[in-house]
Structure formats: structure tokens, C-alpha cells
Design goal:
Elements lengths: L13 H5 L3 E10 L10 H7 L5 E3 L5 E5 L6 H21 L3 E3 L17 H10 L9 E7 L3 H11 L3 H8 L4 E2 L2 E2 L5 H6 L14 H13 L13 E3 L5 E8 L4 H23 L9 H14 L6 E2 L5 E2 L1 H19 L2 H14 L2 H26 L18 H4 L2
Antiparallel strand pairs: 1-3, 1-4, 1-5, 2-3, 5-9, 6-7, 8-9, 10-11
Length: 397
């Protein structure tokens, strides 16, 4: 796989591209449909669904869906939509509704930790950070060689701010605008193992750092490695975790397409002997904080290239960077048009702020409910065809 080449002079076969399988995890906040307040019902919701595996999360008002392994972005889009329908149906049987939002509009009571032994242990050890409720989207891409995977991680680090700006979906907490497009990113930084990953020399270097975190009491187990990019502890994948859970299934498919394109492009570059520039973590942290604050709308998004760039410019550069891989996989037209739709209509943060101005927190919850469930028939996933939320003109979304 390391010899893969996808530049325009030496294209790889589409079968090689499809070896980069993808899986997506989405986290949701469960709310009372009448009040929009968190509903502490995740164990009941998980038990109510028999066709799709639902995972418990740290707070009782959180639930997670996981797609099967997918060989195409079309399949990712279909499976994300299917999982959202499943969790909506399961929640309805328990009198709640899942919202695709990075942080809840209203927080749950303190101490609402899921009652599993592991989560209770985390809460006792880390205290206040365990009480926060944050919902992300994690994209897994198959890279079975761990030494290759850490080199891919090094290449992906520079694009973390752009991916965060694209998916920012948590500007409102406790009913007010926080001043950040992704308040989730700011809250998540309270965990000692969060943030951009280090620059790794090898898989052994990666393992040494994880072991040091455990020795120092910064993590209780490998699953608490909360870097924005990490090697899965139990799957042959690299996992990109920087993103808020996107507002719509289509935006999640867009994120998965860009992440897979980055992985494929990085593997090709490594095969040609091109290794990533070791950007300091402090610089990446600063860039990600700027992206969390400004989202798509700011002008202060730092990147790996000297100078100041806004989110739109960074995303245009990202699309150009992965275009050869996306053209080979057949995903370029969808990705281009889905990205254009987000830049035109706004991501979750933009829509939430418009809804807040138009009708307060209750209107935000109404808009998020619609966006979470939005999506046409699976056959509507066609090259160059993207969907728009019905009624977005009325709500400002």
C-alpha cells in the first residue's frame, strides 16, 4: 500500500482506492421532545434498538451510532442515514429524540454519568471534565500497517483546523452564544490527552507516548487517548476525531470523503518518499482554537502555511489537495458540491446562530431536530446532486 501513487501521471486503480475502507461513529444528545432538555435515557434507548448497534457514552444523555465498514462514500452516506433513522426510532420508543449537536443547548444535571464501571471510574478519577457533554464524529480509514499509519497521522495534522472549521456545530451552551463556533472543542481540551497528536517517528514511538500517558495518570486505558488523530486500539484503522458531530448526514459523508481522500493522498506521498513537516503542537493547538472560535466565518484561521487564512480558503486548498484521490474514487463531484452547499448555506454553527436570532433556544432545537433527521432516498446520492434542508429559508438555517 505504501507504493500507491495517485498523481495525474501515475494513477492508481479504483480497486486500490476501495481498499481504504471507511467507518463512521456519530455521537448524539438525547433530549425531551417537549422541552429540549437532556433526557437521561441512553441505556433505555440502546436496549430498544435491535437492528443497529447503539453504544453508551459517558453521560446518560448521550448515545453513539457506528456504521459498518464501507468501501465507498456512497455507502457511508447510506449507512449514516440508516443509523440516524434507527436511533431516532429507538429514542422515540423511550420518549426522547437524538440531536446531532456538538454540545447540548441545555446541559444535564451534574453527576449524570452512565452507570458502567469504566465510566464511573473515569468520573471518580478525573472529576469535573467527566461531567461535560460533548458529541463528536469519528472517521476510521483502514491503514493496517501501524508504522505507515503514524506517518499518515503526521501528514494529516496540518489539516485539522480546516476539518474543525467545516464541521463546527456547537456555538450555543446554556441557551446563549458562547462566541465559539465549536464550543465542544474548547470543552474537550480539558482532557489531558486531547488535542493534536504528537509527530511520531514510528509506531514504537507512538506506543511509548501512550505508555507514558498511562504511567503519568493522564489516561486510565488506551481508549482514553483522545488525540484528534489516533490509531485505533482494536481496529486496523487510523481514526480522525477532530470534528463536532455534523448537523446532517450529508455533511458527515462529506467529512468522511475528505478524510479518506487525505489518507489516500498521504499514503501515496509516503510511497514516493515524501514525509510530513513536523509542525509544533503549540502551533497546531493555536490554529485549532482559531478554527473553533471562527469556524467558516472568521479570518484568523492559522494553517501550516505561513500567513492568515480563513476557513473557506483552507477548505478550498484541502479540496484541491485531495482532488486526484477523489477523482479516482468517483467521489469528487459529490464532495465538491456538498462542500459548496455547506459554504453557501452554512454549517451547523451558522444555522444554530441564525435560528437563535430568529426564535431563541427553542427554535435552535427545532432546527437541529429537522437537520438530524434530514435526508432523501439513498438513490439521491448521485454525483453532483446534494440535498438542502427543507424550509431552511424560513428558519435561517
Amino acid at each position: 500500500m505504501a507504493s500507491l501513487s495517485i498523481d495525474r501521471r501515475d494513477r492508481c486503480h479504483r480497486d486500490d482506492i476501495r481498499a481504504f475502507t471507511v467507518g463512521v461513529e456519530e455521537e448524539f444528545v438525547l433530549v425531551d421532545p417537549a422541552t429540549g432538555r437532556p433526557s437521561l435515557t441512553n441505556t433505555t434507548v440502546a436496549a430498544a434498538e435491535t437492528g443497529t448497534a447503539l453504544q453508551l457514552e459517558l453521560s446518560q444523555c448521550q448515545i453513539e451510532t457506528c456504521t459498518p465498514v464501507c468501501a465507498s462514500i456512497e455507502a457511508v452516506h447510506r449507512e449514516v442515514r440508516r443509523a440516524r433513522i434507527a436511533v431516532i426510532d429507538a429514542a422515540a420508543r423511550s420518549g426522547s429524540f437524538p440531536l446531532a449537536v456538538g454540545v447540548p443547548i441545555w446541559g444535564p444535571p451534574a453527576g449524570s454519568i452512565t452507570g458502567t464501571p469504566r465510566y464511573q471510574r473515569i468520573a471518580r478519577y478525573f472529576g469535573a471534565p467527566a461531567d461535560q457533554v460533548t458529541c463528536g464524529c469519528h472517521v476510521h480509514v483502514c491503514v493496517p500497517d501501524r508504522d505507515l499509519a503514524v506517518q499518515v497521522s503526521n501528514h494529516l495534522r496540518r489539516w485539522l483546523p480546516a476539518l474543525l472549521a467545516l464541521t463546527a456545530n456547537s456555538p450555543i451552551a446554556e441557551g446563549i452564544d458562547t462566541g465559539h463556533a465549536s464550543w465542544r472543542h474548547i470543552m474537550w481540551a480539558r482532557w489531558p490527552s486531547s488535542g493534536p497528536p504528537p509527530y511520531f517517528r514510528s509506531a514504537a514511538h507512538y506506543d511509548d507516548i501512550v505508555a507514558r500517558l498511562a504511567r503519568d495518570g493522564q489516561i486510565l486505558d488506551p481508549a482514553m487517548v483522545y488525540w484528534d488523530i489516533r490509531l485505533s486500539a482494536h481496529l486496523p484503522t487510523i481514526e480522525v476525531r477532530i470534528s463536532d458531530v455534523p448537523a446532517t448526514a450529508e455533511e458527515t459523508a462529506l467529512l468522511a470523503s475528505l478524510v479518506r481522500g487525505l489518507v489516500i493522498t498521504s499514503v501515496a506521498a509516503i510511497g514516493r518518499g515524501h514525509f510530513a513537516v513536523p509542525i509544533p503542537r503549540s502551533r497546531l493547538r493555536s490554529a485549532c482554537r482559531s478554527a473553533a472560535r471562527d469556524g467558516l466565518c472568521g479570518t484568523r484561521l492559522a494553517t501550516a502555511v505561513p500567513g492568515r487564512r480563513d476557513g473557506r480558503h483552507a477548505l478550498a486548498r484541502l479540496l484541491c489537495h485531495v482532488r486526484p484521490a477523489l477523482e479516482e474514487s468517483g467521489d469528487y463531484a459529490f464532495t465538491r458540491d456538498a462542500l459548496a452547499a455547506v459554504l453557501t448555506s452554512g454549517n451547523g454553527a451558522v444555522r444554530q446562530r441564525r435560528a437563535l436570532l430568529a426564535g431563541g433556544p427553542a427554535n435552535v432545537i427545532d432546527v437541529l431536530s429537522r437537520l438530524t433527521a434530514e435526508g432523501g432516498a439513498a438513490d439521491d446520492f448521485q454525483r453532483g446532486k446534494v440535498t438542502r434542508p427543507a424550509g431552511h429559508e424560513r428558519t435561517g438555517g
